[in-house]
What we know:
Layout: E1 2-10, H1 13-40, H2 45-60, H3 64-77, E2 94-96, E3 101-104, E4 109-114, E5 117-124, H4 127-132, E6 136-145, E7 148-156, E8 167-173, E9 177-181, E10 186-188, H5 190-209, H6 212-221, H7 224-246, E11 249-254, H8 259-262, H9 270-274, H10 278-292, E12 296-299, E13 324-326, E14 333-335, H11 336-350, H12 355-358
Parallel strand pairs: 8-11, 11-12
Antiparallel strand pairs: 1-5, 1-7, 2-6, 3-4, 4-5, 6-7, 8-9, 9-10, 13-14
Amino acid sequence: xxxxxxxxxxxxxxxxxxxxxxxxAANRAANYLSDLAWGTKQFRQYxxxxxxxxxxxxxxxxxxxxxxxxxxxxxxxxxxxxxxxxTFRLLGSVAFDDRILRIVxxxxxxxxxxxxxxxxxxxxxxxxxxVVLQGQRGESDLVYRxxxxxxxxxxxxxxxxxxxxxxxxxxxxxxxNIAVDSDGSIYQGKTVKNxxxxxxxxxxxxxxxxxxxxxRRLKKLSGKERKFxxxxxxxxxxxxxxxxxxxxxxxxxxxxxxxxxxVTVRRSQRATLHSWSFFQxxxxxxxxxKLNGVVVVAVDPRNTSRTCPACGNVDKxxxxxxxxxxCVSCGxxxxxxxxxxxxxxxxxxxxxxxxSTAQTTVQRQGQSPCL
Length: 371
């Protein structure tokens, strides 16, 4: 499978200037090419290459391979649809391949092409990323974020062979609780909700003032909430996968497509619902499971929180409150999220897949999980 290893570059002042000018030149070239594509209605990479390859090399000072990567970037951006003209930020990410970038994990150095020629610089990364970097293959993206330069390197990682599970650990995603599994473990979302609420209130106060100092404060706050939520999701997914592996179970999760359209919440909860990283948590569970040989299956979540596991009665009235389940037919009661997780587990057992085809892929539209 493919994972993304993030490393932080440590360029000198002159090298940082060269990297920035290179990113700006590549994105100006991308905007030039996007204008051409939109005007001529030619969006294929082949057509764009023949129409503008030499022009963007001469006009923006790009090397041959850097120009090829720009053409590919623009062509790929129009593959989703051709209804909207694409524009690119001057410091948007820029792709580099093995011809214009070399990463040496053992020495923590990179050699990268810039407008000023090849630049050699060091990088830092975590222990996990250092191991994953040994399998670095293909393209890497140069990213400028919060005044620092990062490389997001695509790496090949060996998967563990899938284990034939004895059962399935059902996992129910929610708002009050981030996740609840069929064994009764609750991964509470209260801390994340409190952080998000506090940041939302603080942003509103700072934006209302609109002074230079408040703008500096807003810039510092940017991304902190997202980083905290990502850290939380990593920990939850790690715990769920470890439990499934230790108990020789697969993992059954909800099919989350259209969840924001299906779920109805009060007006006060809308911000929480639409900022909740449902897909991120699922993708973390999936790729960690593949690395550990744990089978992951997605099941239809409809009525999982309204179905009584004792008598099978399905009724909206069974869900007395957000957290409480009480069957109107047989009186069976319990935590609604726990019962939903149990029903998800049962559905996975009934529709038990073949192990060789059960593993779901974490690559969606060419993206890979980032370590």
